[in-house]
């Protein structure tokens, strides 16, 4: 019922039918989630989860893992991409230590939810125990619930973790059945030889384990930050919030949530299609329609922040634009 009413409202604004393109689809999607003809975006928030990965010890990233904690400090000091874009659009930003191999000093603006000092090296043992994975999922849900209690109805997620395109690639491979070669990309800037080495390491990991359930797959191949994103997505769906997906690594958390509960997609918008090789396949598998194509591959939730003003525009046209009747403008469609 509400969907039909929204379509009628969209189609009777003073514009040719369908002429606002994807903005019309966005307005319909958000209005359908909120079940209202006048949807609103309230207290937008981005949660950035940071963690280290044991698989980084195998040279799957060109970056030393110390960069994880150094970038977390950069977030705290306001110097990262996600900081400047969040500030530009008045988006609340929280930085969460999901499992960084570093002890952050007390009193700084990093929230301690550390499950461990990085995941295990998957070449030797599963990334997480089932208990750790479930704990991470619960933690992610708790952070979302806190935002909801503050009046937030639109939430997105970012991540930071050297080596975390590797778990994301493995999750894509295991959940979709796509050949591993199609799932592995350059990450933070590997050259062709580096990508080949990364693939060879991940092939050994993929062949080593055969977990069956979505939770077992997430625990075996995921990361603490990815599992927290999974729990955060599931909780945001439970609370009927608008959920904005970011790039490759963040979307792997959405992918795990989708495998656990497919109807999360009713509440999800995909902010962009990343330039990381596997993201296109990940989004297609979840039947997503990315709003932006900017060749981004930074992570951190930057796509979420960048797409936010477009979502605002979609609701402004729906809520503020005059109808043909109000403006006394001849409606071509009405008189066909």
TL;DR?
With 336 residues, the protein is of the alpha/beta class. It has 14 helices and six strands.
Fold and architecture overview:
- By secondary structure, the protein is an alpha/beta fold.
- The protein folds into 2 domains: 2-39 and 318-335, 5,6-Dimethylbenzimidazole Phosphoribosyltransferase, Chain: A, domain 1, CATH 1.10.1610.10; 45-312, Rossmann fold (3-Layer(aba) Sandwich), CATH 3.40.50.
- 48% of the residues lie in helices and 9% in strands.
- The chain has 14 helices and 6 strands.
- It has helices spanning 2-11, 22-34, 66-76, 81-88, 130-149, 165-176, 180-183, 192-208, 214-221, 224-238, 248-260, 279-285, 302-320, 324-327, and strands spanning 45-51, 92-99, 111-112, 154-160, 242-245, 268-270.
- A 6-stranded parallel sheet has the order 3-2-1-4-5-6, with helices on both faces.
- Helix 11 links the parallel strand 5 and strand 6.
- Helix 2 (22-34) packs across helix 13 (302-320), helix 5 packs across helix 10 and helix 9 (214-221) runs antiparallel to helix 11 (248-260).
- The longest helix has 20 residues, at 130-149.
- The two termini are 24 Å apart.
- The mean pLDDT is 96.
């Amino acid at each position: 019922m509400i969907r039909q009413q929204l379509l009628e409202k969209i189609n009777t604004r003073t514009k040719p039918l369908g002429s606002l393109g994807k903005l019309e689809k966005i307005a319909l999607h958000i209005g359908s989630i909120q079940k209202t003809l006048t949807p609103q975006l309230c207290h937008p928030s981005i949660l950035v989860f940071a963690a280290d990965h044991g698989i980084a010890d195998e040279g799957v990233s060109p970056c030393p893992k110390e960069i994880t904690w150094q970038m977390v400090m950069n977030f705290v000091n306001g110097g990262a991409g996600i900081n400047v874009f969040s500030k530009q659009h008045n988006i609340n930003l929280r930085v969460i230590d999901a499992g960084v191999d570093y002890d952050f000093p007390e009193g700084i603006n990093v929230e301690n939810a550390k499950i461990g000092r990085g995941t295990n090296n998957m070449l030797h043992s599963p990334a997480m125990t089932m208990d750790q994975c479930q704990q991470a999922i619960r933690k992610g849900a708790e952070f979302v619930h806190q935002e909801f209690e503050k009046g937030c109805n639109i939430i997105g997620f970012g991540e930071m973790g050297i080596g975390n395109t590797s778990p994301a690639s493995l999750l894509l491979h295991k959940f979709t059945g796509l050949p591993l070669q199609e799932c592995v990309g350059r990450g933070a800037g590997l050259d062709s030889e580096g990508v080949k080495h990364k693939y060879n390491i991940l092939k050994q990991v993929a062949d080593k384990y055969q977990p069956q359930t979505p939770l077992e797959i997430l625990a075996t191949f995921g990361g603490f930050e990815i599992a927290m994103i999974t729990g955060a997505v599931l909780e945001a769906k439970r609370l009927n919030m608008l959920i904005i997906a970011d790039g490759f690594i963040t979307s792997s958390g959405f992918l795990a949530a989708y495998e656990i509960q497919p109807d999360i997609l009713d509440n999800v918008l995909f902010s962009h299609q990343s330039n990381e090789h596997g993201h296109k396949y990940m989004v297609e598998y979840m039947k997503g329609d990315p709003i932006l194509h900017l060749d981004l591959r930074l992570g951190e939730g930057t796509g979420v922040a960048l797409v936010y003003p477009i979502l605002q525009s979609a609701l402004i046209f729906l809520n503020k634009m005059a109808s043909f009747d109000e403006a006394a403008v001849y409606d071509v469609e009405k008189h066909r």
